[in-house]
Amino acid sequence: MAALKLLLDDVFDFDFSVIAIHCSLEEYRMAFLINKYAGLRLKSSEDVDFFVKNDKYSFAAMRFDDQKNYQSYTLISNKYKLKYAKQVVNSDLFTESDSEHYKILNLVPEVKNADYLLKIESDTSKIPRLALLAQLNQIPQIITAYNVEVSSLKSKQNLIFE
Asked: Could you name the domain of life of the organism this protein comes from (predicted)?
């Protein structure tokens, strides 16, 4: 008898859109400005935790659920600053010196220069991206904000964290 083989396509439909934001402000200040200019009500929520090789990385997140329009907005930091100590052995008077080094880890490495990602989930087919982009680009502290094509991201599964 021939073996029956079922294949599961791992192609999932990602029903959200992402806006990349370049800005050097802290999370709470960024959320305040987005709330002011775009009319959202982002509030702090639980950090998004990722575990890689027994290491925990936490990305700060702010969230707003717009129940009137059936949309939810999540502002998440795209960068995590990992601090590690490196011991350097020198051949001079001070033979050993400890120094602190930093490594930047990105939630979505394809947009590694973006400081924040604004994830917009909607139960309806219309998402007001263009109007929101115009409002975000009017904020003086934001260098630029642009739409990211989710289908072209290799690490889009990192944006599913609920």
From this structure: Bacteria
Share of the chain above pLDDT 70, in %: 82
Owning domain of residue 127: 24-82+100-147
- Which uninterrupted H or E stretch holds 99? strand 96-106
Decide if 5 is inside a domain: no
The secondary element (H helix, E strand) that includes residue 75 is strand 71-77
* Helix/strand/coil for 131: helix
- Residue 127 carries which side chain, given as an amino acid letter? I
Which of 109, 141, 129, 106 is closest to 29 using CA atoms?
141
All residues at 6 or more sequence positions from 107 whose CB lies less than 8 Å from its CB, including other chains: 48, 50, 59, 76, 77, 78, 79, 80, 117, 155, 158, 159
Task: State residue 14's pLDDT score.
Answer: 66
pTM given for the model: 0.80
**pLDDT grade for 12, boundaries at 50, 70 and 90:** low
E strands in 14-69? 16-22, 43-44, 48-52, 55-59, 61-66
